[in-house]
Design a protein that fits this description.
mainly alpha
């Protein structure tokens, strides 16, 4: 019996040893020529990593194979299509592990051969996932996401004002040239690889959620601080696909995006990536059910509307306006909340920002129901009246353009008894004293439109305006007489 156990133990050991040896032979190309030089994986700052620094992840995430316990090296491997289907998974993991090595792009003359090897390997992995034969088991997915994380998640370079010491509000982000990642040729392929993985129909969400977890998504959101617009565009696409495929991540993604808005508003005022996140949020809002959940309304009031007070709103205003309009379009009862929110954050001294607000206001009013319009008509048209009399002709002109919108004109006609007395005085001021001829002409057109809507109300407003003018002139005369009496009294006292 003892000899029988010895034979069984020896047989099991030989089989394991044989498998390991065979796998090693099938993985790496060996020729009669001298073996190619390999590059040790450097750290992000370009220095080679030690074995301890480049240690493999936990055994639950890394295959139990000798090649994954050593730092990755860049070397020529056979193509995936040239090996048998049984050897393909191990070769795939070997290639993914090898691509965890980062190349130094500070100088184009450094590691040119290794850079090309990695680029070609990443291209092959992308094609493998895209092809119908790209079956990826759980172990392969683990090594793939580990490689993607090693390449993507890194320390981002400081912003321009952090390098120069200039205050952030003193720089116009639209005038600055964007920073471009020097190792984008590799990083782009890594993003493409992640995108192919997420959208692949062969990848089950139940399996992928072990690797695309909350930690991964959170680190992905941190990358929206990247100055490279190409990277942010890929991040936007990837995150949107993750939101669509992984339903259990949706609340976390929404909450994380809102937290980024809070951080931007109350801490950093660094607006990189806000536009892309708002684009994602716009499509998310489009999928909300009606009636709107209280959670979504709360985030509208606390996170989205306060973005209007940002100094850098011109960079992402288009996306912000789209999100706000989507809320009103989904639930018409939010129109009053949105209009009062815009009035709350309305700019006082920034004319360019005021023009943006008027454009957004027109889009909101275009989807506003008459019942909700009535709730905020008085404060709204008081603000519009002030814009009509603005000394900046662009603000006054943009406010007058509201009367070119048929839906808004219809809303005004239904509430003309309230709106006419508020707007009439502003129009008369423009007719008498505005310096810009275009504003003068537009004001005359709006005045004529009011007269055609309701002649009796127009004449009543005109009469009331004349009375107010007469009272104002009388008060002015009394004030001048009072000052004259004071001057006379002062001159007599001086004598």
């Amino acid at each position: 019996m003892f000899n029988k156990f010895l034979k069984m133990g020896q047989k099991k050991f030989n089989k394991s040893d044989q498998d390991t040896t065979t796998s090693g032979v099938n993985t790496v190309v060996r020729s009669s020529r001298p073996p190619p030089t390999t590059a040790a994986c450097p750290s992000p700052n370009g220095e080679p990593q030690s074995s301890a620094a480049a240690a493999a992840p936990s055994p639950s995430q890394t295959p139990n194979h000798p090649m994954f316990t050593t730092p990755p090296t860049l070397e020529v491997l056979p193509l995936l299509k040239d090996v048998s289907s049984s050897d393909r998974p191990l070769l795939f993991m070997k290639k993914a592990h090898m691509c965890s090595c980062q190349c130094d792009f500070s100088d184009s003359l450094i590691m040119p051969r290794e850079k090309e090897i990695k680029r070609q390997t990443l291209l092959e992995l992308v094609d493998f996932l895209h092809s119908s034969s790209g079956k990826v088991n759980e172990t392969m997915q683990s090594e793939l996401i580990r490689m993607v994380s090693a390449n993507m998640f890194r320390c981002l370079p400081p912003a321009h004002y952090e390098n120069t010491g200039a205050p952030p509000e003193g720089n116009d982000p639209e005038e600055e040239e964007p920073y471009l990642e020097p190792w984008w040729p590799h990083l782009q392929l890594v993003y493409e690889l992640l995108l192919r993985y997420v959208v692949s129909s062969e990848i089950e969400p139940k399996t992928a959620k072990k690797f695309i977890n909350h930690t991964f998504v959170s680190r992905l959101l941190d990358l929206f601080d990247s100055e490279d617009p190409r990277e942010r565009e890929y991040l936007k696409t990837v995150l949107h696909r993750i939101y669509g495929k992984f339903i259990f991540h949706r609340p976390f993604i929404r909450c994380s995006i809102y937290n980024i808005f809070y951080k931007y508003l109350y801490e950093t005022e660094r607006c990189v990536g806000i536009g892309e996140l708002l684009e994602i949020l716009g499509s998310v809002i489009n999928g909300f059910t009606v009636p709107m959940r209280e959670e979504h309304v709360l985030y509208l009031v606390k996170a989205i509307l306060p973005l209007h007070k940002s100094k850098g709103i011109s960079i992402f205003h288009q996306q912000l306006s789209y999100c706000v309009v989507q809320f009103v379009d989904k639930d018409y009862k939010l129109a009053d909340t949105v209009i009062r929110g815009l009035l709350k954050y309305w700019p006082l001294t920034n004319c360019n920002k005021e023009v943006l607000f008027l454009g957004e206001l027109e889009e909101v009013l275009d989807v506003t129901e008459p019942s909700e319009f009535q709730r905020s008509v008085v404060p709204l048209f008081r603000k519009i009246g002030k814009c009509l009399n603005s000394a900046n002709f662009q603000v006054a002109e943009r406010a007058l353009f509201l009367w070119n919108n048929e839906h808004i004109v219809g809303l005004i006609a239904e509430n003309k008894d309230v709106i006419f007395p508020i707007i009439f005085e502003a129009l008369e001021r423009n007719m008498k004293g505005h310096w810009n001829q275009a504003v003068h002409g537009l004001s005359e057109n709006v005045r004529r439109m009011f007269m055609e809507m309701d002649t009796e109300l127009f004449e009543e407003c005109e009469k009331r305006h004349a009375e107010n003018e007469a009272k104002a002139c009388e008060l002015l005369e009394q004030r001048e007489m009072t000052w004259k009496r004071l001057e006379d009294a002062a001159s007599l006292a001086a004598k």
